[in-house]
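User: structure tokens for FCD domain-containing protein, please.
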Amino acid sequence: MKAPAQRASLRGQHSRVLEELGSEICSGRLAPEQVITLEEMETRYGVSRSVARETIRVLESMRLVISRRRVGVVVLPPEEWNLFDPQIIHWRLASADRVSQLESLVELRTAIEPEAARLAATRASSAEVSDLIGLAGQLWAAGEEGDADRFLALDVKFHAAVLTYSGNPMFSRLDSLIGEILVSRTEYGLVPERPDPVALQRHVDVANAIQRRDPEVAHATMRSILVQTISEIGTLAAGADEAS
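Assistant: Done. Predicted tokens:
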């Protein structure tokens, strides 16, 4: 039986190799149909065969690679990947193509979150509505005060709550995906230095519409938040290109 320190070391090695290989695949540095062997992994990363196998097992579960007899581990094309996996989202957003990736993810949010807000206006319990109103108020205050870390944490929590309070279990399972998008957008500087006052107020307006049980206003207001987000990403990305 492995000692706790040894198990921790193996987990650390596994995480390191997984991060490097996943990033290389999602950035295109490892191209589709390229073959990876366990022997190469052992040599390159200085890890054991068991760590290499465990890393491949996880990458296979994400559909980034597939093991083929007498060939080895083959990198799969992007259309095979589990694009909803938060780790894949993280790796794709770390690539040079992050802006287009982020725009496509926000387009996905635009298709889902307004409907979640509409459903929440008809399905959320009184306690859930009260919680959402409180979150919107805290979010507004954090934005007004320029507390970026607290604002991000509350923004993630607010959007996850709307998904959950929709009463649709499929929507609620997307909370980690939405959270990864929000965190990555901040991490790569694709957010304004201070939250836009209009966007802050719209979050409050979404909560108020849900409280009033007004599904159409909840839907329209949430959609306006996401349309503004797409516009902000484009503007900030263009500014970054000019600066470089």
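User: Anything notable?

Assistant: The chain is about 75% helix and 5% strand.
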